[in-house]
């Protein structure tokens, strides 16, 4: 499967302007034959919200009726591909830091970030839908969001459910994720597509610089593509699904069969 990795710089609190920046990147991936794209966390809104009310203005329902997800469905139709993108979700008056699985036929799946990072706890609710599995053109995959990288349980859940890879939508500010996810790739024999963002955002006292370095990993943690730290970038990677379906490490070791489920649980 050809997977496009998009590293973007959203326009803070401006969905329309963020879409204008994303459009040529989506187009460039489509021209290189991408079948599935991975976009960053909160790709339409940026990351820092002055308060809950400003987050609500850019938040959308997961049903695809809002400006951003509606636009993504149109992009999928135009380019005949699917994608996973982070966005701020509103549901029953509650905000979630979510990732939608979008196809030409609409939004077909939704993940809500399980592990909220730092100030996110001021405006988002922690996710409550587990780690759902999505399917597209014979590939099975899960979405995780940014700081989820630090929790191996979520990656194991995805792998045990049958994920060939994880679409890791990110707004990274700490320097460890790109190293940490190599362990998740290796220990689960799955691909990892970390789509990070770049740029600096200020909001009140807070200022954050996002670190780029988007990265595609094979199931043996080989770096298949790696982005710069300070500018928008995209790449299309040929990913061998079969590699992720073989959990055999030696003649006598299978990463899933050898788990000691009598000694520990997930
Ligand atoms: C993060 O979870 N956005 C650092």
Content of β-strand? 25-35%
CATH topology: Nitrilase/N-carbamoyl-D-aminoacid amidohydrolase
The total beta strand count reads 16
Distance between the termini: 30 Å
Number of helices: 6
How many structural domains in the coordinates? Answer: 1
Strands of the biggest beta sheet: in what spatial order?
A: 5-4-3-2-1-14
Largest sheet: 6 strands, mixed
In terms of quaternary structure, the protein is single chain
**What is the alpha-carbon Rg in Å?**
17 Å
- Helix share bin: 10-25%
Bound molecules: acetamide
Shape: globular
Could you give me the name of the CATH homologous superfamily? Answer: Carbon-nitrogen hydrolase
Order of helices and strands: EHEHHEEEEEHEHEEEEEEHEE
Unreliable sequence segments: none
Structural class: alpha/beta
CATH class: Alpha Beta
Task: Summarize, please.
The protein has 6 helices and 16 strands. By secondary structure, the protein is an alpha/beta fold.
Describe the protein's architecture and organization.
The chain is an alpha/beta fold. The chain has helices at residues 15-31, 52-58, 67-79, 152-160, 177-188, 241-244; strands at residues 2-7, 36-38, 82-91, 94-103, 106-112, 133-136, 139-145, 165-169, 191-195, 198-203, 206-211, 215-217, 223-226, 233-238, 248-250, 253-254. It has one domain (2-254): Carbon-nitrogen hydrolase (Nitrilase/N-carbamoyl-D-aminoacid amidohydrolase), CATH 3.60.110.10. Helix 1 packs parallel to helix 3 (67-79). Bound molecules: acetamide (ACM). Acetamide binds next to loops.
């Amino acid at each position: 499967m050809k997977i496009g990795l998009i590293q973007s710089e959203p326009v803070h609190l401006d969905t329309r302007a963020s879409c204008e920046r994303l459009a040529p990147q989506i187009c460039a991936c489509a021209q290189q034959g991408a079948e599935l794209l991975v976009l960053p966390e909160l790709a339409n809104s940026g990351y820092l919200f002055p308060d809950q009310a400003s987050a609500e203005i850019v938040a959308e329902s997961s049903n695809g009726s809002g400006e951003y997800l509606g636009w993504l469905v149109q992009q999928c139709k135009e380019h005949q591909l699917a994608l996973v993108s982070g966005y701020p979700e509103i549901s029953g008056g509650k905000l979630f830091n979510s990732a939608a699985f979008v196809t030409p036929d609409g939004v077909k799946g939704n993940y809500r970030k399980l592990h909220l990072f730092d100030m996110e706890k001021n405006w988002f609710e922690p996710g409550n839908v587990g780690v759902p599995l999505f399917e597209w053109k014979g590939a099975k995959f899960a979405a995780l969001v940014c700081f989820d990288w630090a929790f191996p349980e979520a990656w194991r859940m995805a792998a045990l459910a049958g994920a060939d890879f994880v679409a890791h939508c990110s707004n990274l500010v700490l320097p460890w994720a790109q190293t940490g996810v190599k362990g998740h790739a290796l220990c689960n024999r799955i691909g990892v597509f970390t789509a990070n963002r770049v740029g600096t955002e200020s909001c009140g006292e807070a200022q954050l610089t996002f670190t780029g370095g988007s990265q595609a990993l094979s199931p043996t943690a080989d770096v298949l593509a790696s982005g710069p730290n300070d500018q928008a970038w995209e790449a299309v990677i040929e990913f061998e699904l079969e590699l992720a379906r073989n959990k055999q490490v030696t003649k006598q070791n299978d990463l899933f069969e050898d788990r000691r489920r009598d000694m520990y649980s997930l």
